[in-house]
Amino acid sequence: MQGSAGPAEPSAAEARAALERVLASRCFEQAARSSGFLRYVVEQTLAGQGERLKGYTIAVEVFGRPPDFDAQTDPLVRVEAGRLRRRLIEYYAEEGRDDPVRLDLPRGSYSVVTAYQVSKARDPEAAAVLLGPTPVVAPAADAAARNRRRWRRFRAAAVVAAVTASVTVILFQRGEVATVQHDSAAQALAFRPPIVVQPFEALGDAEGVASLAATLTEEIFLRLDGPERLVVPAEVGGERISTLPGYVMKGTVSETDGAVRITARIARADSGTQVWSEAYDEPLDTLRSAVGQRRVARLVALATEPYGPVFDAEIERVRALAPHEPVTHDCVLKYYEYRRAFGAAEHASALDCFELVTKSEPDSPEAWAGLSLLTIDAWAHGFAGNGGSASLLERARETARKAMDINGENLHANLALTAVQYFSGGDFHEGAERVLAEWPENAEAQAYLGSMFLLTGETGRGDALVASAIEWTAKVPSGYYASRSLAALRERRYDDALTSALKIDAPDWTLGHVILAAAGASKGRADLAARAHARVMELNPSIATSLPEVLRRWRVEPVLAGELERGFAAAAGP
């Protein structure tokens, strides 16, 4: 079989043994389609036919499609190949992390690759040789991705049309204009609300300002485009924008003596009520570069991301609606409300919401991913007495797989699967690196994965990710500051640990108060430490004896665990 760089290539017998181990695993036991797919491509590769494997052959031989199957128009095999690749990644992160031989199905091929596997934990240098460097996105690939996002404008505008009653929508696509009239109302609640991005206005006649305004409008539109966003960007014309159940963004660009001022504002589309506004002053030379333009676009887009002003406005809007059956968007808002402060009541509300929505919207990857993430948190935080429950962790795994099977490119589905690997004690690195490569500027992913790195001893890497997340989050949630405090405690920077801990605003989060108590005691602030310790004992009287077990559940490495245990014990006073 085709092999990777390494000391030798596994034999056919070793490859077949690896196949049987994979197929006998929990990860594949209820995945008949992936199992049949993998067995077929392994056997064909061993027979020397790997390079000749095509989607048509697999569809007919494995999935029973008729001879007239058209692989160009039916994505069946590509979809199943994506699912198989994700299951292999999951398997080797957990059950198969110590297998001697690894099977992989590289993108762009149906030929299986085998290689001797080296555990990163046991021998990181050898693993680096075998696995190669972490992939980076090439400029050409980045450009291609940006072009694909431009074409998603049609889809975004179509969503606006679907949620709007009797609105004429103007779709702008590469200079072509199409008018779509919709006469029947659709339920806006089923979708993320649109945000109409109006062209930024160039003020004055300074050379290049009009072009810069157009470029910034384009960059902001692209920055807002993505399924992980709370809103859908769109360009809408006509007099009935006010009927949209969403928002309007507009702005201006002006230049004086080499300095450029960009103003941006967001208002409710129906009422015109301003939600947010901001001004940015940048040197003209900075904005002549694509990097500078993208930086400003990213700053503007922060207003529409979780914990920002549009998030707050959305919570208000949904709460003001008449009673209705929840939809995924409602649950996503509840999820972020919970993660602001890790309250048990907020967790229960969000969990109940996703439980209902997975029944009414069974094909929503976001719903299944949200359910998985909240189930993981119940296991990790001990909500409703479920701390460390094996059945709960298994349910989180099943719902994460469901989300990935529906859409393997969903951010929360990928985070959920990585979190299951982490809390199961597996190697979470491959999943984490995949998420960071796919969403390199997503603050939520940086903070979530950064905490995993720093808790397990990769303090520098984790702290840097969390620091970046804080920089690019409009209103920073408590968990981000908790992570920074933990990183400082690990390095015995007690001033910094206490500074970050004091920014934790989570009255009912036991672990947040544990961190503050430990940081306060370590810094010599007995008053702060004693108050935090007292609050912990109110929330969880058994924590004094259960803290070591809680830290093991979170995979906290020994040095940091020691700092927390010593600091928390000292906070109790003499």
List the helices and strands and how they pair.
Blueprint: E1 2-3, H1 12-23, H2 32-46, H3 55-61, H4 76-93, E2 101-104, E3 113-116, H5 124-131, H6 139-162, E4 168-173, E5 176-181, E6 194-197, E7 201-202, H7 209-224, E8 232-234, E9 247-256, E10 259-268, E11 274-283, H8 284-287, H9 290-301, H10 309-320, H11 328-341, H12 344-360, H13 365-381, H14 390-406, H15 411-423, H16 429-438, H17 443-455, H18 459-471, H19 478-490, H20 494-501, H21 510-523, H22 526-539, H23 543-553, H24 558-571
Helix pairs in contact: 1-2, 2-4, 7-9, 11-12, 11-13, 12-13, 13-14, 13-15, 14-15, 15-16, 17-18, 17-19, 18-19, 19-20, 19-21, 19-24, 20-21, 21-22, 21-24, 23-24
- Number of DSSP helical runs: 24
Helix-residue proportion: 55-70%
What's the main sheet like? Answer: 6 strands, mixed
Give Rg in angstroms.
26 Å
> Count the strands?
11
Helix-and-strand structural type: alpha/beta
End-to-end separation in angstroms reads: 67 Å
Low-confidence stretches: 119-190
General form:
globular
Quick check: average pLDDT? 84
- Which percent range describes the beta-strand content? 5-15%
Features:
single chain, 574 residues, alpha/beta, six-stranded mixed sheet, three-stranded mixed sheet, 55% helix
Question: Care to describe what's here?
Answer:
The chain has 574 residues and is of the alpha/beta class. Helices cover 55% and strands 11% of the residues. It contains 24 helices and eleven strands. Strands 6, 7, 8, 9, 10 and 11 form a six-stranded mixed beta sheet that branches. The chain has a three-stranded mixed beta sheet with strand order 1-3-2. Strand 9 and strand 10 form a beta hairpin. The radius of gyration is 26 Å and the shape is globular.
